[in-house]
Design goal:
Length: 347
Amino acid sequence: MADEDLYWNAVAKRDATADGRFVYAVRTTGVYCRPGCPSRLPKRSNVAFFASGEEARNAGFRPCRRCTPDGDSLAQRHADAVSHACRLIETSETSPTLNELAEAVGISPYHFHRHFKSITGLTPKAYAKAHRATSVRRSLSNTSGTVTEAIYDAGYGSNSRFYDAATQILGMTPSVYKNGGDGVEIRFAVAECSLGAILVACSAKGICAIALGDDPDILTRDLQDRFPKAQLVGDDPHFEKWVSQVVGFVEAPGVGLNLPLDIRGTAFQQRVWQALREIPAGQTVSYADVAKRIGEPKAVRAVAQACGANTIAVAIPCHRVVRTDGSLSGYRWGVERKRALLEKEAG
């Protein structure tokens, strides 16, 4: 009876996360559904629960045509459609239009746009922009190519279109980025917190690095390795205020952190990092949960790699992602720091 009470609560809430655990059948209609079915809620007295669709069919019930309990859930079909659209964006020479993407996956433009943003955290246009930016960064890192070649290889129709957005995409001009940040000013400071040393760095666009460690010198050298030719500027009184905010957030996560971020990564990484930023303080999710949220349920390992590639600690809270069994996995800045952060957030 206790299990049936839990099942009924899931049905009453239309809890899609319970899909696959059981099905419920309605005696008055002869139909069985998945827990997340959007159909009208039946009377509790008319409902029976079964472990599987096969059991429900053996009892004489037929599957609901609306939620198709024996096939992929509606949420999974939306996730598959978004995943397919992402591949189309990534493999097309020029960015497909919203209507072209919607037609390709068989969803109306309005609903496709809504589902795409809900699953990836980005609009289709923003995702295409992020993918092009990733291609530009990759090409610019190849010293054998020119800036112009990198721009056209990434799918930009003209130099002017790219240069209009170059600073926002790269945090600096394309030529400077290609030369390792030559002439770019990056302000930084190292402070102490309960987790050890903490380095905060900022480009013209926003916070580009938050790193934790035991040795301030190592943290500084790591920053220099990322931008070997940039001008690193310390001892900036104005910037010290930002550092204080970050340290305050580490010590008391409930205060929140509202600072501009300069997030640089592949389109996939940005989808993962956006999903991480939506996890409330004090809560944890698994790598599999994150993969489902971005519409890539099979990309659990890639999600873990994206978490490991994050260079902006706490502001992009990869520490809130754990293994499926709840145990702590690797953390760029040490598992013990991950544990300490979660304990602080748990209050």
